[in-house]
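Our collaborator T.R. sent over the components below with a one-line note: 'Predict the complex.' Nothing else. No constraints on interfaces, no templates requested, no preferences about which chain binds where. So this is a plain run: every listed entity goes in together, and whatever single assembly comes back becomes the starting point for the next discussion.
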Amino acid sequence: MSWLDLPAGTGFGLDNLPYGVFSTTGTAPRTGVAVGDAVLDLAAATGDDVHATRSLNAFMARGPRAWADLRAQLTEWFTDETHRGDVEPYLVPHDTVTMHLPVEVADYVDFYSSQDHAENLGRVFRPDSAPLPPNWKHLPIGYHGRAGTVRVSGTPVVRPSGQRRAPADDAPTFGPSQRLDIEAEVGFVVGVGSDLGTPVPLAALPEHVFGVCLVNDWSARDLQSWEYVPLGPFLGKSFLTSVSPWVVPLAALEAARVAPPARDVALLPYLDDTGEPWGLDLTLEVRLNGELVSCPPFGRMYWTPAQQLAHMTVNGASLRTGDLYASGTVSGPGKDQRGSFIELSWGGREPLALADGTTRTFLEDGDDVTITATAPGAAGGRISLGEVTGRVRHAR
Ligand code: CA
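Returned assembly:
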């Protein structure tokens, strides 16, 4: 029980308590915790300067003991009536705050860990060959993205321009992307770094990973398909990556842990997650201009965040506070479970019919895309990961 007046069915109950960075008019960005329809000003409530540093990095760097201590304190504050007088003055209505990028992103890595997504793209792009590349079930494929263009939800999506060459064209042309797309993903935020030269085993996930957010990896498919061989995604992705403002602590997702899908290929020992099931039963929802177009199921991801972490460091590459690694597009087997428009419209060949009578292949200027997600919470209901949203603007 809590003395807080929590709205019925809120996804921001005491079993969630996600962290973000907020400001109100005329005040500096600082750390807050979402609870019900309010944000607790942690800088003011705790008096700890670590929460007045404009990002979560300094707090995250303190490590899992400090994370657990603060979470326990917040729970006590919100449940024990005797703290009400000390805490209530620092609750700010959520609808009066501006949210900022929660993390100063160090390195950004994006994986490709949904078998349904990888097979869909394989079938769209390479219909005459096997849908999965030969390495896909042996390692979590990823690439290094551009950390400096990771921005908070709500950042406008300026349509990128670049080179593109359609199959029928003799030479590339330059201009605004005609195949602007989304990728609905889940991101993992590293709180504690690691030493260069020392791999991080998958069992060490809770010692390094602070929490989880939502990611929209905006993608210009026409730029991407012309540039990506042989070094992978580059300008087709780096113009913007959006993240949700609330980082849900790993501790809030205990009830969401599930076994990953059965693997049909033996894994090398550093990726063998027997006994370390870090699948997460998150349900994503993708809305285009308010209309629900897809519900990607994260629980079906073939590679888990623990395996991704182990793979990312197995060569001795070190982690830094603020590293962000994303899951890759989340898709399920159903047509209404696809996490990108290139899948929803099957490469543009099968336009998606919308409720207003129009159709969509790729995004048009003015389109709003919002990704939300929920997960089973410890209290028996569902906790919210909030949302990541963006509106497409005309090319400059
Ligand atoms: Ca991606």
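Summary for T.R.: Residues 110, 183, 185, 217, 328-329 surround calcium ion (CB under 6 Å).
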